[in-house]
Design goal:
Blueprint (H helix, E strand, L loop, with lengths): L2 E6 L28 H9 L8 E6 L3 H7 L8 E4 L4 H16 L4 E6 L3 E2 L2 H17 L3 E6 L10 E4 L8 E8 L4 H10 L2 E11 H11 L1 H7 L11 H9 L7 H6 L5 E6 L3 E2 L4 H7 L8 E9 L5 E12 L4 E5 L4 E5 L7 H9 L7
Parallel strand pairs: 1-2, 1-4, 2-3, 6-10, 12-13, 13-14
Antiparallel strand pairs: 4-9, 5-11, 6-9, 7-8, 7-9, 8-10, 14-15
């Protein structure tokens, strides 16, 4: 039984504006590394899954750049969605392709924009999940052991007794909590961060999609005769026009009785905000991260990025300053998740030149 990787790479990284843009989003940037996030994502899976078994699900704006950044991946494996329909459609599409090419193959589904520094630990956990998914009709989600009461992540609660080594039946899914609830989750010992990484067989996830999202599954079935032939993209556009935008968590994972959590104890971040980048970067003696042509005086605990234009910051603490030349962002570090509202404003006002 073969194993495939599915790299979900269709997001725009709106919380990383103004560095992240629609045509060059977060996953295509070299953040905390000489390589880009998507290149590091592929590298982590090297040796476990060959290039021919790696699918990248992205969009029309990014497909060409991804092909350049991942030249080893066959062009037919870089799939451009005609428009975004959230993760249920993305995963269902990938499962259809995998099932056509290798019925019942194991799928390792990962976002393109995460940072994982303990690669051996990650690969070890993946191996356990692949073995489990190969033998069981299971939907496996990787849960990260929390190291702090984080309000930027969703959480997954497990049942007390392990089903097998490192694997637990899932009890509940919880949305991003407030701080007090996050503290309670971490103290309980049975809540894990929801990493958005999954392992399952292609036939199993398609069965669950048919059970819990029958309309989505019905429309995806229209792709059956067009996978890997010249009619694929015309049919795909027609199919996607009928699909609702639903996440795999909301549409399937929160409802299925086959969901298991695989404990991940490796270091992990979904790099979901500028504050998270600040937390991961090395700081100077004043607790600052300064990148580019930057002067900082009486500044503490801040992240300042300006690679091309001289930027001076004086007398402020706990701020994020991002200067890309055509746009400038200044915000409180603890409110950096709200940057996505800037992108919403730009879309409403048709400022496409800086989106």
């Amino acid at each position: 039984m073969e194993t495939y990787a599915v790299i979900m790479a269709g997001g725009v990284g709106s919380r990383f504006w103004p560095r992240s843009r629609e045509r060059r989003p977060k996953q295509l940037l070299n953040i905390l590394s000489e390589k880009t996030l998507i290149q590091n994502t592929r590298d982590r899976l090297d040796g476990l899954i060959p290039d021919k078994n790696v699918l990248v699900i992205t969009n029309k704006l990014q497909a060409e750049q991804i092909q350049k950044q991942l030249p080893g991946i066959p062009a037919e494996n870089i799939i451009a969605e005609p428009f975004g329909r959230n993760t249920a459609a993305c995963i269902g599409l990938a499962a259809k392709i995998v099932e056509k090419r290798s019925p019942g193959a194991v799928m390792v589904v990962v976002p393109a924009d995460h940072i994982i520094r303990d690669v051996p630990g990650f690969i070890s956990i993946l191996g356990k999940g692949i073995d489990f998914a190969r033998e069981e009709k299971a939907l496996v989600t990787i849960g990260i052991e929390p190291t702090r009461p984080e309000t930027g992540y969703g959480y997954i609660q497990i049942e007390q007794n392990p089903f097998t080594d490192h694997i637990y039946k899932v009890s509940t899914f919880a949305e991003k909590p407030n701080f007090a609830t996050a503290v309670r989750f971490v103290q309980s010992g049975d809540f894990f961060w929801n990493s958005g990484m999954f392992i399952w067989r292609s036939d199993v996830i398609l069965e669950e999609l048919a059970l819990y999202l029958p309309e989505t599954a019905k429309h995806l079935n229209e792709l059956d005769s067009s996978v890997d032939n010249e009619n694929f993209y015309p049919v795909l556009e027609e199919v996607y026009g009928k699909l609702k935008s639903i996440s795999i968590d909301y549409g399937v994972m929160e409802k299925s009785t086959r969901v298991y959590l695989l404990k991940g104890s490796f270091s992990w971040s979904d790099v979901g905000s500028w504050e998270e980048i600040y937390n991961l970067e090395k700081k100077d003696d004043n607790g600052n991260v300064l990148e580019g042509k930057v002067f900082a005086e009486m500044v503490n605990d801040s992240y300042i990025y300006s690679p091309d234009i001289f930027t001076a910051v004086v007398g402020v603490d706990n701020v994020v300053v991002i200067n890309t030349g055509d746009a400038l962002l200044i915000c409180r570090k603890d409110l950096s998740q709200e940057v996505k509202k800037v992108v919403e404003h730009l879309k409403l006002n048709n400022n496409s030149d800086i989106l």
